[in-house]
Design goal:
mainly alpha, 0% strand, 85% helix, rod-shaped, 2 helices
Length: 143
Amino acid sequence: MTDSTPKTTSAKPTKIEQPFQATAQNGSSQATEAFGKMRQDAAESTELFQNCYVTGLKGAHEYNAKVMEFAKSNTEAVVSFAKTLSDVKSPSEFLAAATDYSRKQFDSLTEQTRDLTALAQRVTLATVEPLKAGVSKAFGQVN
């Protein structure tokens, strides 16, 4: 009959096992350290993207408000022009009113376009600059 009791081995590592055990422990500690660093980098990246998103969203709201302000102004100009046209008595008055309105609207639209372009550029830079800095920092750490 065979003996079914398990044989116990000594808890002390042999001379051959010691280098392997040290290597495994070293590898394990390096993996734990690398995982911690990756987790920290992921948290920083998430925060960076959240900040960029919030900045972009605020900029979009600001842009939207500016567009609505311009739409109101342009609507008021059209109503004023319609009132002016209702008081016109001759073709020459009509032509003068239409020319005056067209000139004013052209100037107004030019200025509005300038304002919206400047706002869009400012919002874009404010949104992208932190992201650009974060990417530069990340690639700087890799080298």
